[in-house]
Amino acid sequence: MQKEWLVLLNQMLGLGEEENVFLAEESFEDLMSLPVTSEILEEGLDSECCIEVEGKAIAFRLTEPAEFWLVLTDRYSKRKMLEEHFRHQLREGCKKVSATESEFFTALTEYYALSLSGELLCESCNVNGSLLYVEERIGRLEDFLKPLIPKDKSILEICCGNGMATQALLRLGHAPWSMDSDRCDLCQALKGGFLDPKRSFVLDARMLDGIFRPQSFDSVVGFMVGLIDMSNWPAWREIILRSSRLARDLILFTVYTEKEAKLIAKTLGEAGWRGEVIDNRDSKGIYDQWAYLAVKDS
Fold first, then answer.
1. Residues 145, 84 share a domain
2. pLDDT tens-place values along the chain, 298 residues long
3. If 0-12 CB within 10 Å is exposed, 13-18 middle and 19+ buried, where does residue 50 land?
4. pTM as predicted
5. Is residue 26 domain-resident?
6. Domain boundaries, position 189
7. Are residues 287 and 153 both part of a single domain?
């Protein structure tokens, strides 16, 4: 792994950039189920040196098959196993460092994003050609969003795809957290430099509440969610409801049809949001034709 990578993870552990650092699990989803960590604990670790990120993770210095640091964390899992298994090391043998929740998550996000774009998490890369970015769509969305989303507010963008709509947020001066379940789409955007590796991650949106507490963000947005129909509505309903719980003040979703917008409005209205369906149609009739904008009832 290149030395300039994983700077935040190395910094958090107090290690130099020349040190090789790896997370045991390959994704945020795996950090919830801990398949590799479970195997490691069953087989045991031979390490004489460790670093504890207090309450969050343990890094072990290994020498076989090469010299590197292996990071284990159960922070996002319901299976809390590290403290019990490594109680002796945590009390006596580990160097201790501290990190806030934000610093810890950002370091892991950068690790996974750079590993993804560096093709370290894929057997083969299926991403070919340039990104499809429609400049007219980005500019039109920028104009639409400008009066709606306040400056200097935290934003979570769900289902960001290849980051085309994200560009409108970035041009308006926002710094969103952007996520999608499609590794290839996110990888393509990261490789093109269109998404920030410190703020972009792969996850099924239905699992977001396994990472974030309710109302972790001022705003939650999603652009061109769907296409929603009765066959896939149960999945989209879960995505919409779970992601909306992470917003303190505002949610905004754009869709293709009025029917989709009204379906979202009905569902979120029942969940306590007060909002409106917005007609945003243009002559092209392709992107972001309808929207649902809501603020939380007091």
1. no
2. 444 456 899 999 999 988 999 999 999 999 999 999 999 999 988 887 999 999 999 999 999 888 999 999 999 999 998 988 887 666 677 899 999 999 999 999 999 999 999 988 777 666 666 788 999 999 999 999 999 999 999 999 999 999 999 999 999 999 999 999 999 999 999 999 999 999 999 999 999 999 999 999 999 999 999 899 999 999 999 999 999 999 999 999 999 999 999 999 999 999 999 999 999 999 999 999 999 999 876 5
3. buried
4. 0.93
5. yes
6. 135-296
7. yes
